Structures are given as structure tokens and as C-alpha cells.
Amino acid sequence: MNTVLSLTGISKSFGKIPILHGVDLEVHDGEILSLLGPSGCGKTTLLRIIGGFERPDRGRVVLAGKDITDVPPHRRPVNIVFQRYLLFPHLSVFDNVAFGLRIDKVGKQDIERRVREALELVGLEELADRRATQLSGGQSQRISLARALVKRPKVLLLDEPLSALDQKVRINMQAELRRIHRETGTTFVYVTHDQQEAMSLSNRVVVMNAGRIEQIGTPAEVYHRSATKFVSGFVGDANLMAVEVLDSAGDGAEVKVVETGQRLRLRQTLPQRNATLVVRPELLRLSTAADEGLSGTISDIAFLGSCVQFHVDLDGMTLRVQEPVGGTPLTHDVGDSVGVVLPDHPVHVLTD
Ligand code: ATP
Q: Which residue intervals define the domain ABC transporter in the entry (predicted)?
């Protein structure tokens, strides 16, 4: 995998407040890489450093083998798409997209061809003559994309580009972004705080927390093999169960759940005395036999469409269990005593 962009030791403070703490990151050529994290964790600041809108206090930015740390934004072969589409209202769609090419003094015929291609790419060639003010939110964001892509950037930076759109348009635009990415092969670095969006769009996800990278991995890796408690809780939902290992030999382990004191047999060995099990709600199963697995009482039931979510109160802890609906009527009710059964396969474990 070729690296197109590398960040090394990036630190940044605003006044006395440190925002980024020595971030190292390699972006692969042609991938969609998402920077995912809660509000304020520094993802936009990192993106702005790549774009040249902020200067890091320490660290280097290298793009296609060239150190661009001190290169101003307009001289960098990157373009950025913002959350709010900053189109020129008095210009037509065509002129908005052509704007950057005119500044670069690209020839008239080339501009005509490239703008048409870019508008076709985002599926809006018929709107070329429209004023920018006469567009819907989704259309405006497509034009912003066309305007950025027409410059053929080495890396396209996207800062929460879909968050101002309503849910339906957003899902639609996610598919559009995947298609545009496939057709252009451009490297995307995509900032979002929405884990569903990061997972569905990206080849790799960078999970950030308080100015540091907690994990970099494919969506499946960060979901199934989260490196930290923070990642497991931020990417999807996870039950975290602290356990004390009582015995571990052969193909299994006997553990005690710290919070409830209940014992549990696992299909895996656990080398350390203390561990935290990370169990996704959809991996747990309810049993009507209260003595199978961990015993508890259903305290809440929520129908989520493709599945039903149960809250099961154990002595001192609540587990979330998701079961597929599958057309069968609900057999459980609030107040029922149930067993919560772990999967037959090894579960993901974090050792402290
Ligand atoms: P969000 O999703 O809310 O945009 P983020 O992870 O992108 O969050 P940043 O925008 O990078 O976070 O901001 C990180 C922190 O830096 C925040 O606390 C923010 O208030 C602060 N910050 C950002 N830009 C500046 C600035 N120019 N001056 C001072 N503080 C800033």
C-alpha cells in the first residue's frame, strides 16, 4: 500500500490549551480514511493542518513525498469540502465549479470540458446554468464536491460534509460519495463524529479521543477488535464486563463477573487475572431458562425495526441484548427472569 500523505508528531495548542498531542498518521493512496471522534477531540484541527489552514506547533506534513508543512493552502494539491457549502451565490453552478480553474488560468476549452465532467460525476450536469441560490442542500453539497474534484486534488479533505443534510439525503449522499470515490480513485480524508457514517464509508477509520489516536483499523477491526474501552463504546454499542479469571486451561476459562459476582464459563483461555469482556449486544442471546448464562430480569424492551433491544438488569449491572426480529412474535416481557447467554465463540477481551 503506497502512502500518499504522512503526518508525524503533529502537536497543536490554541493558547495554552493543548489540542493535538503528537499525532502520527499515514494515509494510503486511494483510500477513504475517516477521522472519527467526539466533538472537540481535534479532528477538524488535524484536517485543517493537512489543508494548511492551521500550522502545527510541532511535527511535519508530507504529501506525495514532499514536505508541505510550510506551504500555504492554495499551493497544496489538496481541496476541502466543508459542512456548510460555501458557494458564491451570485454565480451560476458552472461558474462556481469553474472558479478555481480560472484562478489557475486553465484554458477556456479545458475549463468547459473539466467542469462538464465534474458536474456529470456528481450527477448535476443539467443544473449548470442555475444560480447557486436555487439549489437544495444535497445539490449544493454535490456542487461543492464538483468544485473540489475539478481541481484533481491528490487528497480531498471533507469536513463533516453531510451533517447539515437531513437523514434520507445523507444516506443517499453516502452512497454517492462511495461511487464518486470509486470512479475517481481520489484519496479522501473524511472528518465525522458519526460512527455509522465512518463505518459505512471508509476503508479505514481513525478513532480519536482528546487529541490522540486511540486506534486505526478497518471498520470491522475497530468494531470487532476495539483496542480500548473508549473505542468499543464510541464505535457502536458494547457491554463492558470486568471479570476476574478464576481458572484458565485447555479451551476455556472460568471467570467471575466483578460487578455481580456471578460465574461464567468462556470458550477461550485468558492469561491475565483481570480482564474486560467487550460484548456487542447482538452477540448476546436471551434464554428463558434463568439459570443458563447470567441470570437477570428484563427491565426494558425497545423495538428497533430489524431487531429488538432488551435491557437486562443483573445484580449491579445492566446488559443490552439485541435479538433479530425474524417475524416471530415477542416471547419476552418486562419483568421476566431470563438468562443472558454469551456466544459459543471467543469474545473480544481487553486486558487492563
Ligand atoms: P467538532 O466535531 O465539534 O468540530 P473536532 O473534533 O473537529 O470537534 P476541533 O474543531 O478540532 O474538534 O476543536 C478541538 C478543540 O480546539 C475544541 O475545544 C475547539 O474549541 C478548539 N479550537 C478549535 N479551533 C480553535 C481556534 N482557532 N482557537 C481556539 N480554540 C480552537
A: 5-235
